[in-house]
Amino acid sequence: MRYQTILVALDGSDHAQLALEAAVTLAEKFGSRLILTHIMDIQYFTTAWFEPPRTRSEADDRVDYKPDTEAKLKETTDYQREFGRRILATAKDHVPAGIDYEIAYTVGSPREDLLKMADTYKADLIVMGSRGMGTLASMLVGSVSSYVVQHAEVPVLVIKQ
């Protein structure tokens, strides 16, 4: 089997770095194009949870709301965007000259958007780490890699440390 386009999921974890190394090895062997991607998880950065209360009753229901919450949310979002840019800049530095690559950065659901990107870029293979920078929520509902393996229409190479 020859892989023309390899989608590489990057999140800053050690497993993702190993996935990048594996993808580079495959790209060198098959002459593949790499799509280096980072998806900022939207579930952590939605303002819907942080809108100021409109009524006293609503305020009572959300006693933990603080007026500076929106500013902190923006600061956190800006930090996460910069973090994603750094991940991709570092990844790009690990791609040897002569390997064709493209950077894809988006905000959304890593599970869903990896599948969409595989379709959009017509990837023949998805390469990702077995564990990312996950949270307790991912332990409860399943990891991104497990979801992608179960739902992808193309082969998925999951790299363990």
UniProtKB/TrEMBL annotation:
Pfam families cross-referenced by the UniProt entry: Usp
UspA domain span: 3-160
Family matches, as PANTHER family: STRESS RESPONSE PROTEIN NHAX (PTHR46268), UNIVERSAL STRESS PROTEIN UP12 (PTHR46268:SF6)
Family the UniProt entry places it in: Belongs to the universal stress protein A family.
UniProt-recorded name of the protein: Nucleotide-binding universal stress UspA family protein
